[in-house]
Amino acid sequence: MTRSYAEAVTSLPPTGPTPRSDVRVPPRTPDLESLRLLVLVADLGSLGRAAARLGISQPSASRRLSTLERGLGLVLVDRSRRGSRLTSSGQVVAGWAHRVLEDLDGLLTGAEALRTERDAELRVAASLTVAEYLIPDWITELRRQQPELYVGLQVTNSEHVCGLVDSSSADIGFIESPQVPKGMSARQVATDRLVTVVAPDHPWARRRRPVTAEELSRTPLVLRERGSGTRQTLDRALGLAGLDLVRPLLELGSTAAVRGAVIAGTGPAVLSDLAVRGDIADGRLRAVEVEGLELRRSLRAIWPTGRRLIGPAADLVTVARRLGGRG
């Protein structure tokens, strides 16, 4: 049986002092090209084809693998007249080498992104509802398509999103306001509707008939702050019905805080269906039908009028329109 080169080397009698049996020589760090060669041998099933892929001669490839074997203290390749194939140890090491090379590729890609940071970075501003329930899926899909892209996200209410985009502090914004802000171009990316919700023990939870728009306007509600898209949508819907809200029961700066207050029994609220559908399904909240109000709304991407939507910003809008309101 033909022995491997490494087996032949290790079987030669020592030429120097006999090493102590309790002393272990640590393996030498392999060079990356030797790891690439090993992975190619595993992938292509042939040392000759692997050498050709790397543009080196087969003897040179064989010497490189022998050096790798000596450095690791393992027999990685069985060599015979019928060709070369990986040993069981070689197959395991080739798998590890593949992961090392993938991590290296990630390092190099990341370094390239740092060198071209202005081209690679996408600055996004989004309203709270969009940011909490939609944009993570949108950005994940964009990063799947463009792994090198670094995305920075600022989360605030719709009014402040407009300010960030207008001042060029964000490349693209996403809002839930009922109207397109002045000086902004917009494109609808999804739709949403507001739902009136109460705690299960609230009197409205047992009503057989809908709450009227007038009743809703006269009832102190737990509300989002002014400037939020949810608040603007509710105010606009009531205004179109010739109504105004009474003094709010409580104003809070996030959807999660409003949800928590309603679940605790503080009072009714009007929130995005995206935010409360899970609570309704689990029985923590009850949806109350309201007649006489149009509470559907568009979720939009915005950017300054006169500026072309190109590059990663345009790609994100395309992804958002395709995924829409899946959340």
TrEMBL record:
Query: Record's family?
Result: Belongs to the LysR transcriptional regulatory family.
Domain of life from the UniProt record? Bacteria
- Which keywords does this chain's UniProt record carry? DNA-binding, Transcription, Transcription regulation
Q: What is this protein called?
A: LysR family transcriptional regulator
Q: Which residues form a coiled coil?
A: none
InterPro entries to which the protein is assigned, alphabetical = LysR_HTH_N, LysR_subst-bd, WH-like_DNA-bd_sf, WH_DNA-bd_sf
Q: Which CDD domains match?
A: PBP2_CysL_like
* Organism field: Streptantibioticus parmotrematis
Which SUPFAM superfamilies does its entry note? Periplasmic binding protein-like II, Winged helix' DNA-binding domain
